[in-house]
Amino acid sequence: MKNIDIISLILAMIFILPILFGLIRPVTRLRLQSAIASFISNIEFLLGIISSIIATNKLLGLIDGGGKYRFLSYIPDSFKTLVIEQRLIAFIILVPFVLILCLSIIKLLLTPVYKLMVDLIPALICRNDGTGLGAKLLGIVWKLPTAVIFLLIATFALNIYSSFNYNPNLNNAIAASPIYKVMDDRVFIPVKSGEWLKKIPVIQGDLFAKDTKGDNKNLIERIAGKNIKVVEYFNGVTLDEAVKSNAEIDNTAKQLTASENTSIKKAFQIYKWITTNINYDDAKAATLSTNSRGISSGAINAYNERKGVCFDYSSLFIAMCRATGLKVRMVTGLGYSGKDWGDHAWNEVWSEEEGRWVNVDTTFGKYVNYFDRKGFNVDHKYAEIQGEW
After folding, report:
1. Which of 254, 249, 359, 345 is nearest to 306 (CA)?
2. d(CA 361, CA 214)
3. Given phi > 0 = left and psi -120 to 50 = alpha, else beta, which region is 306?
4. Domain 219-388 part of CATH 3.40.120.10
């Protein structure tokens, strides 16, 4: 029983039941006319959902990216702020309106097809009593769009749940389902592949918590409410070694912040420089997912090579902040990449003027602004402070 793929079983039943219903229920000529009409309506609705999701994502990407298109000036500033701070809520609000527009266009284009198929096909291939192989096959075809829609709704619900909630057992069961994986790879990842949901890099696996012997510690024990500071050995270096600076890094940081007079403005200049000049090292991330030994990490390494993983980004931010007298922290936990939850590192910087810690993620900042971003905790979970300077 332990090996039963419950998620795939549920998804398969959701897909099969409408088809079985279409097979066993007789189809008369009158019912076939209704079936074809329903089939076309389902196709229209399916196309409407897909096109409205794509169109809404494109529109939200333009708004979030600060595009200069003239029509964007008519969008209220309050909604633009909502797009930046609560993307999912903005999507839910906007997509019904886009769906109505898309459905109107699709219905207009398919009207000639609708009239031809409803009037002509039933008279040619179906008996009045609904018997015959053709009628049964048509009953199956009639229900196929309904089955696809039900499967889309079910997998979409699982996708949204796993995106915004970290439940290891359920998330692993969802990820292990071949049916869900096909739907996710073929439908949801392409749909979500706009600029705002490009795959933001996180390292998959239990990589941050390693003791001096190199033994992995359990991810849940480490971060899920235990409040235990266990990170001693990151990516092959100690934390103190990782945040060390040099004269070149210090001079760069001081030059960047020379004209700024507040801690927030200084921190933002450092954040902007790192997100602009440091690239994510995919090859290093892939290596770290299996073995961190023999790999150089930390601020100096990231600065010299102009690339790194999230730990390197965070270490460099700390080194540059320290050079300018800013109070800063290293934070680890889980980050959501747009597809998966994984181990991640980010920072907090102290605002002297406002008397609060400001969340900063220079890794995610390569794609969308993550400096003091509202809704930061939506895709950053189980924050654990590993050091403060």
Report:
1. 249
2. 27
3. left
4. no
23-73 pLDDT, tens digit per residue, is 776 556 676 677 677 778 888 888 888 888 888 888 877 776 665 666 666
Q: What tokens appear for 234 in the block?
A: 């990151």
C-alpha 296/C-alpha 88 separation (Å) is 38
Nearest to 87 by CA among 64, 65, 68, 71: 64
Give the C-alpha separation, 320 to 247, whole Å: 11
Determine which helix (DSSP H) or strand (DSSP E) holds 386, and give its type and residue range. strand 380-388
What's the pLDDT at 220? 37
For residues 284 and 25, give the distance between their C-alpha atoms in angstroms, rounded to a whole number.
58
CA distance 269 to 367: 17
Residue whose entry in the numeric block shows the structure tokens 């076309």 = 40
DSSP string, 225-238: S--------BTTB-
- For 367, what's the count of Cα atoms within 13 Å in the CB-facing half-sphere? 16
Question: What are the domain boundaries of the chain?
Answer: 6-197, 219-388
CA 49/CA 41 separation, integer angstroms: 12
Rg, C-alpha atoms of the chain: 27
Instruction: Give the Cα separation of 165 and 146 in Å (integer).
Output: 29
Name the 3-class secondary structure at 373: coil
Residue 87 makes CB contacts below 8 A (sequence gap 6+) with 60, 64, 196, 375
Both tokens of 309, joined, read 């993983």
Q: What is the pLDDT of residue 346?
A: 92
Ordered DSSP codes for 106-146 = HHHHHHHHHHHHHHHHHHHH--TT--SHHHHHHHHHHHHHH
Helix (H, G, I), strand (E, B), or coil: what is residue 306?
Answer: coil
